[in-house]
Amino acid sequence: LSLPNFSIWAPDEQICDYAAQIRSEYGLKTPDAIHLATAIAAGAKAIVGNDRRWKRVQEIEVIVLDEFV
Questions:
Q1: Average pLDDT rounded to a whole number, residues 24-38
Q2: Separation between Cα atoms, residue 12 and residue 6, nearest integer Å
Q3: What SS3 string covers 5-59?
């Protein structure tokens, strides 16, 4: 099965360290910080979600689905 523009990344030590930094700096929960750190480490230009708190993160563009309704 091949899906263009879709990858699965396992959180390695570097991503976990970065997630801890994001969690601390922006006051996010651990799973959210892991999602964001993984996207940033993967070189994603943006991440889509529905949590407005993610918008505080400056290292990646956050697209909030509720903003389109």
A1: 97
A2: 18
A3: CCCCCCCCHHHHHHHHHHHHHHCCCHHHHHHHHHHHHCCCCEEEECCHHHHHCCC
Q: How far is it, in rounded angstroms, from Cα 28 to Cα 59?
A: 14
For residue 50, the tally of other CB atoms under 10 A from its CB is 10
9, 41 contact by CB (below 8 A)? yes
pLDDT tens for 51-64 read 999 999 999 999 99
Where do we find the tokens 């943006």? Answer: 46
* pLDDT at residue 8 is higher than 90: no
Question: pTM value?
Answer: 0.87
Q: What's the confidence (pLDDT) of residue 12?
A: 95
